[in-house]
Design a protein that fits this description.
- The structure is a homodimer.
- In chain A, strands 3-4-5-6-7-8-9-10 form an eight-stranded parallel beta barrel, surrounded by seven helices. A two-stranded antiparallel sheet of chain A has the order 1-2.
- Chain A folds into two domains: about 325 residues, TIM Barrel; about 55 residues, no CATH class.
- The first copy, chain A, is globular.
- The first copy, chain A, is of the alpha/beta class.
- Helices cover about 50% and strands about 10% of the residues of chain A.
- In chain A, helix 4 packs parallel to helix 15, helix 6 crosses helix 7 and helix 8 runs antiparallel to helix 12.
- At the A-B interface, helix 6, helix 8, helix 9, helix 14 and helix 15 of A face helix 6, helix 8, helix 9, helix 14 and helix 15 of B.
Chain lengths: ~425, ~425
């Protein structure tokens, strides 16, 4: 049985109990949320040695980091190094988006090493495989697609992004309502391209029931990709995006009915003032499915700093109800990230997740802030390192002494010595 | 006449006309806002070669960068280097917070070089001067304080932070309602310490009329410091903070009545969910005075990354009505920033200001995003550099080619070549 089926069957699985304990929520409350599909538990039955993660309503905000080879850079060693950084820095999940080298071997190697849930986007491998065999992606059929998806699930992938919502009708809607940046999802553009060429329905939508069967077999959570997510502020919240979101809501219901766990992916590029309403709209249209957002980036003009534009939007989105933040690195829009950029991406997303946890009233997060500030007031740099998101920044500061910013004019020093109420 | 007096007198000063042109607002509309005190024009009559800046309602969000020597690092050359970086990176104003070396000479040198308005916090020099002459800050009197303030104004300082709102009653309120982090404003703690020692009223409050006379003589804008700003999320919005804000509102009215321009300073550390309400409360209590915020930082646990926590809060604050963002560098809470950290601080604050301008519906900012995204869609890296906040990040990318992030699987390339609606 999948986690959602067990929950409906009033069973408390070991994974559910472990998550309830870690999140500080009663197992019965968590069971209800999993049964309704408002929370998903990321854990493929074939992924050994993985710590299951809960994503959704009432739980702490999670952070995902993307790694993976590309055509230009396909070293397994570098990807395993990134995996290590990602786990050490505290990401909750990792996605392997490899498109270079031996994709199967890379994925299996990452799966065997990762202690956090792993996600993939199988359509990338389908595209690469058809290109490598001198065939066009245009010639793939639903058996090719479902075959590779089943490989990923059998290997133990905990969640897969599938762009089932890029239907013929949604693609036509986009055609009738042009955008500044068209389609910015790789998987989304591949499916739209296939639909346009064949004038046929997206196989992942047409044969969604077969996809559900595969996902159910391994308890792989479907991450329903938003292939039409806005890639610029100008396109945010347009007709095509909302049309696709409506389809995603239908797919969430069908997944739940089939006993398959599903979450929904969200934008993208969204001006700050539109984020709250958009998140609430997506949550409503998708029946409170756990929401996994890529950003949202609050401006288009900051390549090189998009970890920051994403942290601004991610905090606002998570405060408004998003549950899961995909990290964005400083190298977004300009290149593949190197290991240091991967680290920065994780830290920055964790800041956004934590700030949103505080905003949502999560007691443990609020208490961590309070303890940090009490240590700061005492100029206790060792204790600050315990509570800080990055403990390495305090090197070279003497305990009990103010830092060089204010020196002897440190307000905390003056306050404690001469005001000390 | 000061700018507010001229505006009330129906005069369109050269500074007002220049700002109206730059901001894309009618001069008559701007004149009304200046007359009401909802906009201030930063320009001391003695600051030559400075480009005046407008701050407040209906104008683009401005960014300030702090520089200045400290006891440990007091080289004028380094500060002039920082000034150059700050101007090149696009800060709208700069504050000289020097506490080391020859403070008068440093300020005059920065004033003679800066083409953007300069602010100072005169109480810092008062503290240093008393310490250097083996006297305690406790022994300074109102003539010492007003004397140094007049020096700053006569030299051409465009705006000064004055902690007039740290009154005896406000300090007592804090004493009765303890906090996690007490007072985190250097000027605030100095005044509270003086009040506690003498059990007397803050001279800057008691002799506020004399301060107004000085500010009026040079058209120096008063930046009414929030000495009781929260220094931790736990203290945000507490009784002492709001009590001080009420006093600041009284001081704004008295300044306006005296023909003196005044803005108000805001927090500090504020959880994301409280920012909007807090900004609206401050704006109401201070009669729509231009609001200059330091952050707000949305969590306490991210030293080393507080430019990011401040950008998250700064975007939310400016979207809710704040007008002016003081930059925060990665070195906040751990040391004096070096020139590269100064640059990062300015870029990050500019991102927050721009994102808020977009959120507030500023057409020029929305159009910059659209042009950037159109260039991105065309893989036109040269054009992207024109619109980007940092043009240097695009080096080594060939025009017309996708970047290494997705390579041949670039969604924009696929979309244009095979979907191309």
């Amino acid at each position: 049985m999948t986690q959602i089926e067990s929950a409906r069957n009033n069973e408390l699985t070991p994974e559910l109990l472990q998550i309830a304990e870690k999140e500080g929520i009663s197992s019965e409350e968590l069971r209800k949320k999993v049964a309704k599909g408002h929370v998903v538990i990321l854990k493929n039955i074939n992924h050994k040695n993985v710590t299951p993660i809960g994503v959704g309503e009432g739980l702490s905000i999670k952070v995902n980091a993307n790694i993976g080879t590309s055509h230009q850079r396909s070293g397994l060693a570098e990807e395993l190094k990134k995996l290590q950084i990602v786990e050490e820095t505290g990401a909750d999940t990792v996605m392997d988006l490899s498109t270079g080298g031996d994709i199967d071997a890379t994925r299996r190697s990452i799966l065997s090493k990762s202690t956090i849930p792993l996600g993939t986007v199988p359509i990338y491998q389908i595209g690469v495989t058809s290109a490598n065999s001198q065939e066009s992606f245009m010639e793939v059929n639903k058996d090719d697609i479902l075959g590779i998806i089943e490989n990923h699930c059998r290997d133990g992938v905990d969640f897969i992004t599938v762009h089932c919502g890029v239907t013929k009708a949604v693609a036509q809607c986009l055609e009738q309502n042009p955008r500044v940046t068209g389609i910015v999802s790789r998987g989304g553009s591949m499916h739209a391209s296939w639909i346009k060429k064949h004038n046929r329905e997206n196989p992942l939508y047409e044969y969604y029931d077969e996809l559900l069967d595969i996902a159910k077999t391994y308890d792989t959570t479907l991450s329903l990709g938003d292939g039409l997510r806005p890639g610029s502020g100008a396109d945010a919240g347009d007709r095509a995006q909302v049309m696709e979101t409506i389809v995603l809501g239908e797919l969430v219901q069908r997944a739940r009915n089939a006993g398959v766990q599903a979450m929904v992916e969200g934008p993208g590029h969204v001006p700050f003032n539109l984020i709250k309403g958009m998140i609430e709209t997506i949550k409503t249209l998708t029946f409170k499915a756990p929401l996994y957002v890529l950003g949202p980036l609050v401006t288009d003009i900051a390549p090189g700093y998009d970890h920051i534009t994403a942290a601004i939007g991610g905090t606002a989105a998570a405060a408004a109800g998003a549950d899961f933040l995909c990290y964005v690195t400083p190298s977004e829009h300009i290149g593949l990230p190197n290991p240091e950029q991967v680290r920065q991406g994780v830290v920055t997303s964790k800041i956004a997740a934590h700030a949103a946890d505080v905003a949502r009233g999560r007691q443990a997060s609020i208490e961590q802030d309070r303890l940090m500030s009490a240590a700061r007031m005492n100029l206790d740099w060792k204790k600050q390192a315990e509570y800080a998101i990055d403990k390495n920044v305090f090197e070279n500061i003497d305990d009990g002494k103010p830092c060089t910013m204010c020196g002897e004019y440190c307000s905390m020093k003056i306050f404690k010595e001469t005001v000390s109420f």
